[in-house]
Amino acid sequence: MNNRSCIFARQSNGDQIMLFEGKYQLPFFWLMLFNKEDIESYREKIAKMSEKDANPKDTTMVLDKLKAISRAAARRDYIKKHIITCLPLFDDWLYYLQIADFWEMNIYVDLYHIGSSYKNINDFCDSMLKAVVCFDEDIEAWNEETIVATCGYESRDNNKKLFSDFSKAYRELNNKNIYGRFDNKLHLNKKISYRKKIWIFAIVSLIMTALAVWALKFVV
């Protein structure tokens, strides 16, 4: 599980069935399942466990399945407005979570190994909180460090229902790159620096001047 995040379900026999995984990154859609309280509870849980054990075992975020899916569905308009090309994939992903093989009505999300790439758990949780605030306030949330878009990769962990079997959007995107154009690791609400603005203005001015000179040659 090193440097991976995952969503999994627990079965009646105690087995954990992995549904999706994020390789070195936290899939953007997963954040749609969270609210502020989920993230703060996770922050507190990991902080307490880390005090007792440098390598805590139970590092999962436990979400009520119906509440989490309803929360994500309520944020569908955000996907439609800001990343509409991923809307079919988002719809398929939510539907799959509804029909997946859950014995109990919880969704388990393990983010620990992804979070460990940050300096500390607080930075990681703050990063997730920024995204959640953007969803709820309808502000375009660009990717922050290890957080990237889409649903992550399908896991084939003895699942009876495979996501790729019924999601054409997933099959098409996965053949190209499941993270697509969203793997740019831009910071949330990142602003262009004053120096960069000057460089951009200078370059655009040079291009416009060159085009003007070129056009005058034909006029003369």
Could you describe the 3D structure shown?
- By secondary structure, this protein is an alpha+beta fold.
- The chain folds into two domains: 4-189, no CATH class; 191-220.
- The protein has nine helices and seven strands, in the order βββαβαααβααββααα.
| Number of H/I helices | 9
Shape type: globular
Derived from helix and strand composition plus strand pairing, the structural class reads alpha+beta
- Helix percent reads 40-55%
In the predicted model, the low-confidence regions spanning at least 5 consecutive residues are 178-194
- What's the main sheet like? 5 strands, antiparallel
Please state the average pLDDT score: 75
Oligomeric state of the chains? Answer: single chain
Radius of gyration: 21 Å
Distance between the termini: 68 Å
Order of helices and strands: EEEHEHHHEHHEEHHH
Strand order of the largest sheet: 4-5-1-2-7
Number of domains: 2
Ordered list of secondary-structure elements with their pairings:
Blueprint: E1 4-10, E2 16-23, E3 26-27, H1 36-52, E4 60-64, H2 65-74, H3 76-82, H4 87-99, E5 106-110, H5 112-115, H6 121-137, E6 147-148, E7 153-154, H7 163-166, H8 168-176, H9 194-219
Keywords:
alpha+beta; single chain; five-stranded antiparallel β-sheet; 220 residues; 7 strands; 2 domains
Short description:
By secondary structure, this protein is α+β, with helices and mostly antiparallel strands. It is 49% helix and 14% strand.
